[in-house]
Amino acid sequence: MPLPKPQKTLSFAESSYLVEVIKGMVLTMGHLVKNIIDQDRFRTVEYPDVRKPMTARYRGAHRLTVRPDGHVKCVACMCCPTVCPAKCITIIAGEDPSDPAEKFPVEFDIDMLRCIYCGFCVEACPKDAIRMDTKIYEINAYTRQDMVHNKSYMINLMDGLKPEAEDVYRHDPAAAPAGYTSDEEPVA
Ligand code: SF4
Ligand code: SF4
How many domains does the chain have? Predict the structure, then answer.
């Protein structure tokens, strides 16, 4: 077995770290001066007054879509909980009294603490009943239970019950998904 090589002996300048500290400070000051001269280099977004524009492909919080008659489009086919890799969708199916041929979700919960935003549920849905086009990235709550988004929350997400949604699209109406309406004036 070869013997380990002896460690290099540090010079006085290296062992005092002074040179390295000065090099670090010069680098930091260089960036500071460049940032002051060229303000576009700043990466800080003054959230929430300024919002970072999301790309068109950004997946926000889930919403459930409804038919023109107001019924939820979901027919509780169970495709989305089946494909969900995080197993965070829970659906309790029931018979639709207005249409015995169809089922509907009596309960539809998504545990957002487990969701990995893969979008498989949206891809798998045969009814276009679930979408991730809200561009809402403020997905937060004070309790774990509140991080479970339920059916009524996801249906009403774009109807002003979630202030973040209103706020996002009032600032950027062009980014709003089809069907979004707001009573409030867009912010210029
Ligand atoms: S985005 Fe992915 S992880 Fe989240 S609920 Fe849909 S399928 Fe599950
Ligand atoms: S949201 Fe779509 S895929 Fe999921 S249960 Fe409802 S109809 Fe099926």
Answer: 2
Question: 111 CA distance to ligand 1 centroid (A)?
Answer: 9
114 belongs to a structural domain = yes
Which atom of ligand 1 is found nearest the CA of 83?
7
Among left, alpha and beta (phi > 0; psi -120 to 50; other), residue 151 is alpha
Interval 67-105: pLDDT, tens: 888 889 999 999 999 999 999 999 999 998 777 778 999
pLDDT at position 162 over 60:
no
Tokens coding 135:
């561009």
Q: For position 145, what pLDDT does the model report?
A: 93
Same domain for 89 and 25? no
